[in-house]
Specification:
The protein is mainly α. The protein has one domain: MazG-like (Helix Hairpins, Orthogonal Bundle). Helices cover 64% and strands 0% of the residues. It has 5 helices and no strands. Helix 1 crosses helix 4 and helix 1 packs across helix 5. The chain is flat.
């Protein structure tokens, strides 16, 4: 599950054109969280929150790109906002578990590049 979330994290990160360094992002989130006495939520609590945020993202994507439009009474939200919420919670979860997302991503890409190297048809260059 964590590996799939890491891949999602980096897909989300591509949307950020002003900040792409994962270590910097993790430090910013850590500084933000540490200003509160409660600190990080438990990993299970954060996973529940992440699930909630991914659900909100799915809803926005469904409304924007799916067959079911929003009700006129529903609040207008942007996919970018929901991606940011998912990204923040994912970084919080990684920080609380002392996981370096750069290292995690490197492990995941190595896995994809070895295990899945011949899995999909490649684009001809």
């Amino acid at each position: 599950m964590i590996n799939e979330l890491v891949v999602l994290f980096f897909i989300l990160m591509e949307r950020l054109d002003h900040m792409t360094d994962t270590k910097e992002m993790q430090k910013i989130v850590d500084t933000y969280i540490r200003q509160f006495k409660s600190g990080y939520f438990s990993p299970l609590g954060q996973l529940a929150r992440l699930t909630e945020e991914v659900g909100e993202l799915a809803r926005e994507i469904s409304h924007t790109h799916g067959e079911k439009p929003k009700k006129t009474t529903e609040e207008e939200k942007k996919i970018e906002e929901e991606l940011g919420d998912v990204l923040f919670v994912l970084i919080s979860l990684a920080n609380s578990l002392e996981i370096d997302l750069s290292e995690s991503f490197e492990l995941t890409m190595n896995k994809f590049n070895t295990r899945d190297h011949h899995r999909f048809e490649r684009v001809e260059e």
